[in-house]
Design a protein that fits this description.
alpha+beta; globular
Length: 83
């Protein structure tokens, strides 16, 4: 299950995000997107969890939760739109 995580603190590391989701199940990958020019976080990322029910539980538990001083927005990622 691919999960979108928004409103991330700009100082959040991929390891911190992995730990937060890892409390709810197995995490196969974590990616925080960064600006190409500045190298700074864009404030959102994606977490991949292989188990659907663990992913749904993580979404339910973490959506709106304060992490790094910001309330996370967590939901199932939608397929990327073609440009």
């Amino acid at each position: 299950m691919n999960i979108y995580v928004g409103n991330l603190s700009y100082g959040m590391s991929e390891e911190e995000l992995r730990e937060a989701f890892g409390a709810h199940g197995e995490v196969s990958s974590v990616k925080i997107l960064v600006d190409r020019e500045t190298g700074r976080s864009r404030g959102f990322g994606f977490v991949e969890m292989p188990n659907q029910s663990e992913g749904e539980a993580a979404i339910a538990q973490l959506n709106g939760k304060d992490l790094g001083g910001r309330a996370l927005r967590v939901n199932e990622a939608r397929p990327r739109e073609r440009r």
